[in-house]
C-alpha cells in the first residue's frame, strides 16, 4: 500500500514536471513569435510584417463623462456588500480630493486592494432610463481593438451599450449591447448567430451580464471577434479589419439595475442606485497595417505610426512617392507587401 502511494506520488511529480516543461516551451515559442512580429525586417534585411506592441489603449487616457457625482455635492448609500458600505451614507464632493469620484479613476492604475472609481449621480438626481450616462474615450488615432473590459464598483447595469467610431469624423456605430430587456430597450433580439457569408459588422445583444448580482466587482469583457465566422481568416477579411478598427469608444449606461424598491421613491433608496466603474480597459494595437512596429507623436504632435516598408500616412495606409510599382496592400504573415520603387 505504501509502495503504491509512493509510486503514485512519483508519477504525479513526473507528470507535473512534464506539464511545466510543455508550458515553458509554449511560452518561449510565444515570446519568440512576438519578437519576430516586432521587427519590420528579418536578419537578412527582407521585409516582414510588423506590429506595434499589444497594450491597454485606455490606460492614462482622458475619459469624458456626461455625468459625475459631486457636482453639486450629494450623499450616496452603498448597498451592503459593496466595498466601503456601512450603516451610514457617504458623501461625493468633486471639490474635495478625498471625496471625489471623477473620470480620471477609470483609466488610472487599478489596484484591487485599494480601488478608486468613477461614479455617476444617483437615481435621486434623475439618473435612470431614459436618461443615459455616457463615457467617451478618444484614442488619438485608429487602433485595432481586441477587447473592451469594464469592472464595476457597484452592480452591473440592467442595460448598457458600447459604440465605436471607425474614423474620427465618422458616425457612432453600435459594437455590443448588454441588456436583460434587449427587445424592449434596444429593439434587438437577444442572442444572434451569424452564418458564413452574412454581414459580420453587426452588434449582438446579450443578457448574460445584466443580473443585479454581484453587488460589486462584476466584470464585463467584450471580444470584438467573438461570434464572427471570418475571425479564423482575419488577414483575408477587410470587413473584420474595419470592424475591429476604432478611433473612439463610447459606453452608454442606459438602465440601472434595482431590486424594485425604487418605485416607492424613498430618498435613501434612490441614493443607493447609481453607476460606478473602477476600471475601463481596452486591449489592442495601434493600427499600422503591418508596416510599423512603433507608434508615437509625429512632427505635428499627432499620434502616428513610424512607418517602414516605404509606406507613409498616420496608419501607413499608402506608399511613399516613387514607391508605387504595385498597389499598396496591408502586410500579412505570408507577404509583407513592401512598397517598391518604380
UniProtKB/TrEMBL annotation:
Disulfide bond annotation, renumbered to this chain: 288-305, 307-316
Domain Laminin EGF-like: 286-341
Domain Laminin N-terminal per the UniProt entry, residue ranges: 46-285
GO CC terms of this entry: basement membrane
Keywords per UniProt: Disulfide bond, Glycoprotein, Laminin EGF-like domain, Repeat, Signal
Signal peptide: 1-33
One of the GO BP terms on file: axon guidance
Family annotation (InterPro entries): Laminin/Netrin_ECM (IPR050440), Laminin_N (IPR008211), LE_dom (IPR002049), LMN_ATRN_NET-like_EGF (IPR056863)
Domain of life: Eukaryota
Pfam family, one: Laminin_N
Entry annotated with the keyword Signal: yes
CDD domains: EGF_Lam
Keyword Nucleotide-binding: no
Protein name (database record): Laminin subunit gamma-3
Record organism: Cricetulus griseus
